[in-house]
Amino acid sequence: MVSLDQTVVAVALDPMARGLGLTTFTMHGVVLVYVLALAAFVPVGGMLARRVGRLTTFRAGTAVFALASGLCALAPPGDAAEPYLVTVRAVQGIGGALMMPVATSVITDVYEEHARGRALAVYAGLAQLFLVFGPIVGAVLTQLLSWRSVFLVNLPVGAACLWMMSRARVSNRAEGGSLSVIQPLAVVFSLVVLVLGLYQCGVWGFTDTRTVTALATGAVALGATVRLMLRSSRPLLDLRLLGIRPYTVAVALTFLVQGPQLIVLVHGTVYLRQAMGLSLLATGLCLLPLVAASAAGTFLSGYLLDRSRSVRVPVLLGLVAATVGAVAWTAALPSREYLWQVPGMLLAGVGMGLPVPALSAELMRAVPPDKRAGASVLRQSIRQLGGAVGLAAAGAVVLAANENTADAAGVVTVAATSAAFAVASCVLAVTLPLAAVALPRRARTGGHGGAGRRPGPPPP
After folding, report:
1. Which of 101, 263, 435, 439 fits a disulfide with 424 by CB distance 3.0 to 4.6 angstroms?
2. What is the pLDDT of residue 113?
3. pTM (whole model) above 0.90
């Protein structure tokens, strides 16, 4: 549910903008603010789960998520629509952020030591799968009902989640103690200022004093926040885990891959709808090559990792395919011919589906078993931050390249879409050589708690 809502609104953005009178700035902001809230508040969710109990935190997060979803569906037209929708989407992201760390901590507890890495890889793979299925689900719901149904569907799903959790025999133990306020506020402030400053520079200008001030303030605040957590005996995020090189490499590559994936999913969907003038259902159907290829890559990742016993194979193969596919898709955009876009979609889809499950399994093998819950929360935070930074950078480029009249009408031109895709292509092109240099060259032979044992394939 949480992963789906990162991209499910992509198809609904155009009818939402027309119905509510949204600008292009707000259209992108509706997606960006949700992902940013996830990145900023996942550590807070982890802290609350430890202090007040996992079930309590999960129930609160689910209730907030479902309630905010319902409120999104009630967005009023007119001048109030933009601040209302952006605010409620941020609250929805906060609810999702409270749920996510609970899932990882439960998995860590209920699976035995030798199976935890595989189980967390399954979790990451399923999140990846629902992420890419978002636009198709959004197309079907919007076509059959309306764009408001994209949000309303979370009400019964949220109720089902609460019911299932009430029947699950999950411990609600809590460490107790006081809740830290300074660290969460520092994390939220630094990330919000940095990411929104990056996005706003598309309006202000890349060299504007306000842009430089916002980015510098965010960077300084983030540096101070990192220093604060490293000095704390009970840090919000265990940044000392970044001293484990294989873990750091896997997390950094996950960060870099997440941005391009969200960029092509969101901007590719809007392009099919607006530039090519397709119906909602046709847009969903035309995304099938991308979605099916990404799903195939997700499932193939574990198989390649098991057969090769090296994380380099699925990750490098995926990055090569994703880079070539993104470049080919970008080159085909000006033609507005769908068939020319399909090869790029297929390559980009399978390429972006391959790295994340393999990296998730690899990073969990790199940390001691008693650190895996904290390692997973840190990974989730950095992964969501990668998506937020990628969307903000692409959004800034789109706003700078888009025509003023198109901005006001909530329309993204072909040239602006091509610019967003160019950002995704460049990030992937830079990530490929970094991965080739940083990833371990030797095949894995075991891991913490499993020495001498042939590890099974990490299902996606």
Report:
1. 263
2. 66
3. no
What secondary structure, in 3-state letters, does the chain show?
CCCHHHHCCCCCHHHHHHHHCCCHHHHHHHHHHHHHHHHHHHHHHHHHHHHHCHHHHHHHHHHHHHHHHHHHHCCCCCCCHHHHHHHHHHHHHHHHHHHHHHHHHHHHHHCCHHHHHHHHHHHHHHHHHHHHHHHHHHHHHHHHCCCCHHHHCHHHHHHHHHHHHHHCCCCCCCCCCCCCCHHHHHHHHHHHHHHHHHHHHHHHCCCCHHHHHHHHHHHHHHHHHHHHHHHCCCCCCCHHHHHCHHHHHHHHHHHHHHHHHHHHHHHHHHHHHHCCCCCHHHHHHHCHHHHHHHHHHHHHHHHHHHHHCCCHHHHHHHHHHHHHHHHHHHHHHHHCCHHHHHHHHHHHHHHHHCHHHHHHHHHHHHCCHHHHHHHHHHHHHHHHHHHHHHHHHHHHHHHHHCCHHHHHHCCCCHHHHHHHHHHHHHHHHHHHHHHHHHCCCCCCCCCCCCCCCCCCCCCC
CA distance 393 to 427: 11
Architecture per CATH, 4-167+236-438: Up-down Bundle (1.20)
Do the beta carbons of residue 22 and residue 270 sit within 8 Å? no
Query: Structure tokens of 229?
Result: 């957590």
| Dihedral (CA of 285, 287, 291, 292) sign | positive
How confident is the model over 90-125, as pLDDT tens digits? Answer: 999 999 888 887 777 777 777 776 676 667 667 777
Residue 397 token pair = 């480029």
pLDDT in tens, 159-190: 888 888 888 777 777 666 666 788 889 988 99
Distance between CA atoms of 96 and 2, rounded to whole angstroms? 6
Long-range contacts of 302-308 (CB under 8 A, 24+ apart): 302/121, 302/125, 302/357, 302/358, 302/361, 302/457, 302/458, 302/459, 302/460, 303/457, 304/354, 304/358, 305/357, 305/358, 305/361, 305/362, 305/457, 305/458, 306/455, 306/456, 306/457, 306/458, 308/443
